[in-house]
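Hey, can you fold this one?
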Amino acid sequence: MSKPTSPSFATLVQEFFTDYMLQQRALSPCTVASYRDTFVLLLRYAQRQGKEPNSMELTDVTAKFLVGFLDYLEQERHSSVRSRNIRLAAVRSFLKFAARRDPLHLGLIEQALAVPMKRFDRKMVGFVPRQQMLALIDAPGDTWIGQRDRLMFALMFNTGARVSEILGVRVEDVVLGPTSSIRLHGKGRKQRSLPLWKTSARAVRDWLHLNPELHADSPLLPRRDGKPMTRANVAQRLKLAVQIASRKYPDLISMSVSPHLVRHATAMCLLQSGADPCEIALWLGHESPATTHMYVEADLAMKERALARLKAPQVKLTTYRPPKALLAFLKAL
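Sure. Predicted structure:
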């Protein structure tokens, strides 16, 4: 009876991406891209260790190798602990797949799978206050790009959409009428429909009137060449808006305003208006309402109102009087 042979590392990686991720699980392109980037970094690290990617074997992915790779991400690439854990999750998923395809190395794989996730301090969530957010929306000029940016910021604040969601909006995703709404394509292929303010609906209507060449399947917020904007485009346009709005609100400069901070601004406005955390979770497309608790923790005004309902204790301050023996000792020095 012939001895079973193990598939090569390259074969396992190719089957993991093509057969497992794309065909069997039909994962989203964003997830596939994240896993791809992880393996590119992993192979680059192996190359730094003297192992060429073409000669890489599954037995090379030991627990020691994996720990070194994670340290490399944190220390040399200055990745955050969150990013480090995301890369580790991708490698773990591959190793579990490899264990089913290559049971001969199951012991080595189990040792690598034992590398733990790293705990980290959870910082209090930041957000842009409402007045500053309105100043950001009004910052762009009246040029074609300025009108697009103003609409983009207004929709981001109205919907609390992620960058990928706002960039994925097509003209056909917007319904204008007595009750205007927008359909967002969220994480995990989940869709949600959200109502629009009358001002947002009017801005969309004016934008479409200004750009009659936009068809139903065209991106609602395109670049000059008609192609969809990128994450870098959004970050750049928001940075320019911050520079303009900071003339009125200088605090914006120190806030490190990002597209995700605008999403937090929407959540905080909903919370401060009295919306239930479950409603906010549905609005933002969160998997669990527990994710929304971080906004409750960051709302200082809500905590101040809760504290005001408590009666402050009457604390009487007293003066410390040292015993006579201590005074005699000190005077005798």
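The beta strands are 174-175, 181-185, 191-195. Let me know if you want another pass with a different chain boundary.
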